[in-house]
Design a protein that fits this description.
This protein is of the alpha/beta class. The chain has two domains: 286 residues, Rossmann fold (3-Layer(aba) Sandwich); 103 residues, Topoisomerase I, Chain A, domain 4 (Orthogonal Bundle). The protein has 16 helices and twelve strands. InterPro entries: AE (IPR043577), Legum_prodom (IPR048501), Legumain_prodom_sf (IPR046427), Peptidase_C13 (IPR001096).
Length: 446
């Protein structure tokens, strides 16, 4: 029989082992980003606020949630319900209690990357300074919503390129910043941020609002607020999280539901699909059992589906809003004339941007024997020449106009094609100079 002190020693070892296993359970962390500003883009900040309310309700503490949004919607002069943001026509306020970690000009790609990498020194004195302090036992959830284009997503004053995002993801993996990570991206051509770039062996599961070639869609037009309240993919996954028992629903099931209800674009999945099939939504969005889900009735589900029939491609949102505002105004009113003028200017801007990018494509072939103008302006190609694309689009941003404008973003696939067919970036930049320098850098109303 072993002496008593041996049993005491064994018991102590067992206790320490138990403590170690408890410590290894890990935490939930989240980064929520709305990359736009301006009242026409109400829906992006509304999406992020709704996402925050889901995570907060499910028990993820504010200390573990980083929110980036310009914060110019709730108190915007155009908002008839000051201090309130909703994400559904009959929705409750989702703005209350949302952390203001990074707002205004601190909502940048550089700061987003520093947050993901947990770079506290770089964020010292910037916003709240909050970053991901996650480790190898923690799960991370990232939700981004805004405009996008081939191989990039937009921020208020800049863009984040797919190559830079995926480099950051690789660093997070090598630095053991997570156990498992889930990424949801709402933007046009959002699939191009991950397609062929996100490995399937680094414990990341991701879904996107659209494939690499198509628009995402806005929905829930509100005649009172005179704007779209949400984005189709985003409200679909969030309404699912509100209604389902996320402790039993898998990520793949949420993907299936979101894909089925997002009828205008192709919702995609990337990365470790096995993780998506085996992991529950609660492992990334939290699971506070004190807040039971409120299952959606078949009647409510049908009503939401009907309300979403007003979904409009993102590139058409601005014109759609102005057209709806115009239709609601009395004939011959001064306000109607102002809206008519704004709509005409918007259409003119759109045509000017399309014409400029088309002319850049033509100019790019003036010094080449082979002329692939018809090809590059009619057929989308998969982007692999990321360095050329970044170099040229940044040059356009400097010489021509803000590339985060949705009308510019909608045509950047042509620029990507110029790089894909083998034109060197200095040739395309010379074409940019030839087209844009005589005009000067154009500024457009947002």
């Amino acid at each position: 029989m072993l002496p008593r002190q041996h049993f005491t020693f064994i018991a102590a070892i067992a206790f320490l082992g138990a403590i170690g296993s408890i410590a290894a359970v890990g935490q939930n962390w989240a980064v929520l980003v709305a990359g736009s500003n301006g009242y026409f883009n109400y829906r992006h900040q509304s999406d992020v606020c709704h996402a925050y309310q889901i995570l907060h309700k499910n028990g993820i503490p504010d200390s573990n949630i980083v929110v980036m949004m310009y914060d110019d919607i709730a108190k915007n002069p155009e908002n008839p319900t000051k201090g309130i943001i909703i994400n559904h026509l009959k929705g409750k306020d989702v703005y209350h209690d949302v952390p203001h970690d990074y707002t205004g000009n601190t909502v940048t790609p550089k700061n987003f990357i520093n947050v993901l990498l947990g770079n506290k020194d770089a964020m010292n004195g910037v916003g709240s300074g909050k970053v991901l302090e996650s480790g190898p036992d923690d799960n991370v959830f990232v939700f981004f919503t805004d405009h996008g284009a081939t191989g990039l997503v937009a921020f208020p004053n800049d863009v984040l390129y797919a190559k830079d995002l995926n480099t950051t993801i690789a660093q997070m993996h090598s630095q053991h910043k997570y156990k498992e990570m889930v990424i949801y991206i709402e933007s046009c051509e959002s699939g191009s941020m991950l397609d062929g770039l996100l490995p399937d062996n680094i414990n990341i599961y991701a879904t996107t609002a659209s494939n690499p070639d198509e628009s995402s869609y806005a929905c829930y037009y509100d005649s009172v607020r005179q704007t779209y309240l949400g984005d189709l993919y985003s409200v679909n996954w969030m309404e699912d999280s509100d209604a389902e028992d996320v402790t039993t629903e898998t990520l793949f099931k949420q993907f299936q539901i979101t894909r089925k209800k997002t009828t205008e674009s192709h919702v995609m999945q990337y990365g470790n699909l096995t993780l998506g099939a085996s992991s529950h939504v609660s492992e990334f969005q939290g699971a506070n059992m004190l807040n039971k889900p409120q299952p959606m009735s078949p009647l409510t589900d049908r009503l939401n589906a009907m309300l979403k029939r007003d979904a409009v491609a993102v590139v058409d949102v601005r014109e759609s809003i102005l057209s709806r505002r115009l239709a609601a105004l009395p004939v011959n009113s001064a306000e109607r004339a102002a809206v008519e003028s704004k709509l005409a200017n918007t259409i003119q801007q759109r045509n000017a941007i399309a014409g400029t990018i088309d002319l850049i494509a033509k100019k790019s072939f003036e010094v080449n024997r082979a002329n692939y103008y018809e090809l590059v302006t009619s057929q989308r190609m998969k982007l692999t020449q990321h360095d050329c694309y970044k170099s040229v689009t940044q040059h356009m941003h400097e010489k021509c106009f803000d590339i985060q404008n949705e009308y510019v973003l909608n045509k950047l696939w042509i620029v990507a094609n110029l790089c894909q067919i083998g034109l060197q970036d200095f040739i395309i930049k010379n074409a940019v100079n030839a087209v844009c320098e005589p005009l000067g850098r154009q500024t457009f109303e947002y």
